[in-house]
Design goal:
Length: 238
């Protein structure tokens, strides 16, 4: 159900402008690329701060795509407003991540079953313990099946949503000891917002850089254009 609190401080779309499912890359240019490459009759529904949001059709199914920006505060704002004010039911983050798992190479996929964090986003819920942000199982199960059918290399498991890209303590490998597969910067806040709103979320990440195999790392341009396998999985899911 939508709310009268639209437009919001960060989204100037009208009621009903977003589809039930929103694909959410970090980068606004990637959102534009997806809309222009994969969607039919895509309409621009948001352009506040250059965070362009589009709604169009993929194989006849209405779907939206809008960037989250970088970090938990940013995806926290956009996913909150979409879930709570625009009636969005599903948000599928399609991002990039660093990997510290020996089985994962650049361009492999991670389906983030859970998202650990070194951030403080979940402190707002004032729980008497540690909240465990998890993906929606239905979305996760279908995404895994689609990856298998497409013959993609992927792993399902925990990731770290870090508040630091430049981490002075270089703590990645300590998370790896706990079986955490890789690091990005958004999913824990997305999963918490979904839980709080009673909605569904999943993060699919393409490994863009590896802590173990640094010689494989991709450039920003490759990140923008070459992650089509992940985008197609997310579009099929929608
Ligand atoms: N750290 C955090 N976020 C990321 C990384 C990383 O190494 N690579 C891609 N997103």
């Amino acid at each position: 159900m939508s709310s009268s609190r639209i437009p919001t401080p960060h989204i100037n779309a009208k009621e009903g402008d977003f589809a039930r499912t929103v694909l959410m890359p970090g980068d606004p240019l990637r959102a534009k690329f997806i809309a222009e490459t994969f969607l039919e009759n895509a309409v621009l529904v948001n352009n506040v701060r250059g965070v362009n949001g589009y709604t169009g059709y993929y194989h006849g199914k209405r779907v939206s795509v809008m960037a989250s920006g970088m970090g938990q505060p940013s995806i926290g704002i956009y996913s909150y407003e979409l879930f709570n004010f625009y009636g969005v039911e599903n948000i599928i983050r399609i991002g990039s991540c660093g990997s510290f798992d020996k089985d994962l190479h650049v361009r492999d996929l991670i389906l983030a079953q859970g998202a650990c964090t070194n951030g403080n986003y979940n402190a707002q819920y004032e729980l008497p313990g540690t909240f465990c942000p998890i993906a929606d199982f239905g979305l996760l199960r279908r995404a895994a099946a689609l990856c298998e059918d497409a013959g993609l290399r992927f792993k399902v498991g925990n990731i770290l949503s870090s508040d630091m890209f430049y981490d002075d303590a270089n703590s990645g490998m300590r998370w790896a000891k706990m079986g955490v597969l890789g690091v990005e910067m958004e999913s824990a806040a997305l999963y918490a917002n979904a839980a709080r709103a009673g909605k569904k979320a999943l993060c699919i990440c393409t490994v863009s850089d590896s802590f173990l195999y640094p010689e494989e790392n991709t450039t920003a341009e490759e990140r923008q254009n070459s992650f089509t396998a992940m985008m197609k999985i997310a579009l099929e899911l929608a």
